[in-house]
Write the structure tokens for this entry.
Amino acid sequence: MPPEFSVRVGQALDNERLRRNIRRTMDGLVAKRRQAFPDTHELTVLRRRGKLIRGQALANLPDLLLELEANCERNGIQVHWAETAAEGNALVLDLLRRQGARRVIKGKSMVSEEMGLNHYLEAQGIQAVETDLGEFILQLAGERPSHIIAPAIHKDRGEIAALFAAHFPEYPHTEDIEGLTAIARRIMREHFGQAVAGLSGVNFAIAESGTLCLVENEGNGRLCTTAPDIHIAVCGIEKVIARLDQLPPLLTLLTRSATGQPITTYVNLISGPRREGERDGPREVHLVLLDNGRSRIHRDQQLRATLRCIRCGACMNHCPVYSRLGGHAYGTVYPGPIGSVLEPQLQGLDRQGELAEASSLCGACGEVCPVRIPLPGLLRRLRAEGVGDGPDAGVPGQGSRRKVLHRLIWSLWRQAHAHPPLYWLMTRLATRLRRLLPIGLGPWARTRTPPVIAPRSLHELARAEGFAHE
């Protein structure tokens, strides 16, 4: 059982090295994004277009998914549907066993993290090897990603060098970044040369052409999808877009918002397996489309905006909470503002509703979101759902955050304001017995001076000054 959220927050705040690493990287990413969008008008137009593209795709999601399936299969890509993470894991395992694979090389995939795929495969005797440098480092450390774009953002070169020295003593110890990268490259090359199966995520799936788009900077994704005999792509059903001409603006928004790059080093467009006469590429390509609660989110007109996310991480980079805690404090696959909105919907407010309160509601996440997801508004909606007692709106665990004491307090407040004599009596008692009342206001008062109840009410002060109460 992982520690409670408040415990993880305390541990993160006490870890000065982690906070320093996170802060330094966040500042760099924020500055690069600002430089990547020097023209605010261009950014406004791009964001509006990105929102429209993703919004239209979600409005027509069922039809687009069927179109995607038909065109993928026409291209030779075999499509599989998984309603839950467990079904997705079973599908991947079956595909690997058909190939007799004892190892699968993986490109970066947050959906596979959501599925818990690595642990599942290892329990079935299949080794999952992360080939993204950040993911590879975390696999050595036995940790989850701390950020959806830069998984090992919380580690500095000293920590990484120590990990490499412990796991690969045959290589000389170094803290040089290029030296560490060279070691990882040599190790990865062995896996690429031996693997019969590769797995990747999908950034966008284009319905009209049956094309899978995968963007990356290291080239490992390209090797995972072309070197092995079988390529398995796992993808959330919300990643589909209608047309190929909608891809360029989304790529511009994604890369500039994520890392400040004009474009990523590799943009892979996969439209099928190796064809007759071609010398490279996989012999089989499989696409696993995962629901895992997304259809439920899609049914709610307001919460549907969550699914517009293109996984750029900009909301995390600008979030004052994330930048002080890092991703592990959230205890979920998706951290930061988008995680605080998405995870309670996927897992239920009873399990992750506390994340919706891990926000200052400063609005920075909504201001930088490239597809204009109203994250602060969605956080407020989930907070209301957590304490609400109305009809079920489709969010699992609705009302689970409501406490009996809070209900009693608000019930008393409502009664007092509905009955003037009761309000007068309570005000009188509060002013006369103010020294006996508890002044602690919980966590709110830890960094603020609690208000002091005045010895006389406003009505009494007004009467003393000669103003008649009307």
